[in-house]
Design a protein that fits this description.
homodimer, 305 residues, alpha/beta, TIM Barrel, six-stranded parallel beta sheet, three-stranded parallel beta sheet, 11 helices, PYR_CT (chains A, B), HMG_CoA_lyase_AS (chains A, B), metal-binding (chains A, B), EC 4.1.3.4 (chains A, B), hydroxymethylglutaryl-CoA lyase activity (chains A, B)
């Protein structure tokens, strides 16, 4: 073991406004969502997932997707991906001015069946024309693979199945594939082994980490994968959100805690941590709760380096 | 990077009954403390820190130290260290049947001054006859060095100062020296570098990790240090406790979350995780709060391996 972590920059993909807010039961006004996205971009986050063009019947909280995306003052150099489940969603996203979309699939048959009533292969078939059409139209496509380290319905998920999907999504032209530990069951050894297997298939630069902190393992898993060359990490300001379809799945990794670790490792993120903590406290107050991040709960940070 | 974590066993030092309970404002009955210690030992934990023979004026919660220690049905093969601040405490501990004591010192002058009104060198001088007398009497002595990665009063702490203390404590005959990140500010790179420096001085086998989760970094720090050969880790069931003298210092690493990570890494601990989670829920309920561990909050764990 050398213990060396390179100082190459890590790109953080902020998913709070979409992945975080989508499960809020009380409607959040579009103006608040827009303010959140703009504040996050102003913190220096290079990618802020803005909203989701899923059917409002599935996720009522995201019914204002077009309004949010259109109302946004976009910053140069910041990407604002939007989630898209199908061709209809893609059309709505394009009409609203989306430049980057994100598609999703689970690595578990049981999860795909419960979530979208399809086998994994059927899910891949459905997603294929969406990606193709988006790319044809000049959009960039990100892909989420969920349940990569375990499924709430079937338990174990074979790493080979994850690798197969990652390769297929890369072949379709997705510029980035995010590995989602949807229920947060992964531990560092399995996380890094899976990352390495996927990196062997498509390269490290094409992969993102999307770890949940349900079992408290998210940061340790990120750290282990950094050692394997991971350079893109998804996180949610104030730890907002979780997965609505997965029992016990709560606790997105909080962006503040991730940034604190990365900066402590000497890894540049471009993010202003003080401003990010303030943003996390603000949105938490708006939602009427304490921040789920650790950093957001510390009254006075101590500088010890 | 090989990513290999050896499968050598890790010894967990459970500190909940002492480090955890000492800050409880409401008195906890001795019978409850005894039940907690006995339950923890029954989970398979090899070391359960039982109580503290500090002055009841300083820590009223530990005024029943002798009663707790004497009332305990000890399990064969389990050690029950007790904290001892001075010769008077040592005498009380011996009289109550202690076989292992723990002494403490901070690596920061500012912290020692505020905590015990002494410089670090004076603190070391005060501690020296306590360790000598304990060893002469046939007791084993563990030592805590606190603020090893940062001090709430002075900020940065020089790694060389930590190494100096670790070496001094080893020379005095302490069988184990626990490296305490009292305020939880450490990140994995600094944690592993400090561990390595200390291990170069006294060997890995003589060191324990004592990380707080205040900044959410504790498990990542443990993981990084495991890669450097760390094999003893302190943790507190249900995340009980923190440091009463350090502003913002809360959040002991929860034993449940640590055990989950270690078992996920294929590292044996001897601990029955289900029973431990149950114990953490029980003591949290007794104290009238939700467990601070992540595992304790999960309704139904999903087995994914």
């Amino acid at each position: 073991m050398t213990g060396a972590t390179t100082t190459a920059a890590v790109r953080i993909v902020e998913v709070g406004p979409r992945d975080g807010l989508q499960n809020e039961k009380q409607p959040v006004p579009a103006a608040t969502k827009i303010e959140l996205i703009e504040r996050l971009a102003a913190c220096g986050l290079p990618v802020v997932e803005a909203t989701s063009f899923v059917s409002p019947k599935w996720v009522p909280q995201m019914a204002d997707a077009a309004e949010v995306l259109a109302g946004l003052r976009r910053r140069a150099g910041v990407a604002y991906p939007v989630l898209v489940p199908n061709l209809q969603g893609l059309e709505r996203a394009r009409a609203a001015g989306a430049e980057v979309i994100a598609v999703f699939i689970a690595a578990s048959d049981a999860f795909n069946r419960r979530n979208i009533n399809a086998t994994t292969d059927e899910a891949l078939q459905r997603l294929t024309p969406v990606v193709a059409e988006a790319i044809r139209a000049g959009l960039k496509v990100r892909a989420y693979v969920s349940t990569v380290l375990g499924c709430p319905y079937q338990g174990a998920v074979a790493p080979a199945e994850v690798v197969r999907l990652v390769r297929a999504l890369a072949d379709l032209g997705c510029y980035e594939i995010s590995l989602g530990d949807t229920i947060g069951v992964g531990t560092p050894g399995r996380a890094r082994a899976l990352f390495r297997a996927c990196a062997d298939a498509v390269g490290t630069a094409r992969l993102a980490l999307h770890f949940h902190d349900t079992y408290g393992q998210a940061l340790a898993n990120v750290y282990a994968c950094l050692e394997e060359g991971a350079r893109v990490v998804d996180a949610s300001v104030a730890g907002l959100g979780g997965c609505p379809y997965a029992q016990g799945a709560s606790g997105n990794l909080a962006t503040e805690d991730l940034v604190y670790m990365l900066h402590g490792l000497g890894i540049d993120t471009g993010v202003d941590l003080d401003r990010l903590v303030e943003t996390g406290r603000w949105i938490s107050a708006v939602l009427g709760r304490a921040p789920a991040s650790r950093l957001g709960r510390i009254e006075r940070r101590v500088t010890c380096v």
